[in-house]
Amino acid sequence: VQLQASGGGLVQPGGSLRLSCTASGFTLDDYAVGWFRQAPGKEREWVLCISGSDGTTYYADSMKGRFTVSSDNAKNTVYVQMNSLKPEDTAVYYCAVDRRLTPRSRCRSLAMTGRIGGFDAWGQGTLVTVSS
Fold this sequence. Notes:
The chain is mostly beta strands. It has one helix and eleven strands. It is globular. It starts with a strand and ends with a strand.
């Protein structure tokens, strides 16, 4: 069971990046798939969540309108298109799944509480740096 996040890099403010999260050993569309980020000196926070079972999406407020999540079940991959990037988006971005609860319920609870306990299979993360 493994997740691989990729696609990070250096981008100027206002620029765009697309991150990918590819799973091996299990099928993403069975679970809630979350994206999280951790900036230097800060706690890990949730960015968005997609329910693998029905595609319902949830975004943290600061990401709404700028980030868009999508999935390709054939590739067992979830993508995050990040637009209008800001310096404060600089962080290591991780994807993870919660395999305990029904996907939509878990995403909804994550959106309501921000609590990331229960998400596992964390990948190594991909660094996004937004700087001029």
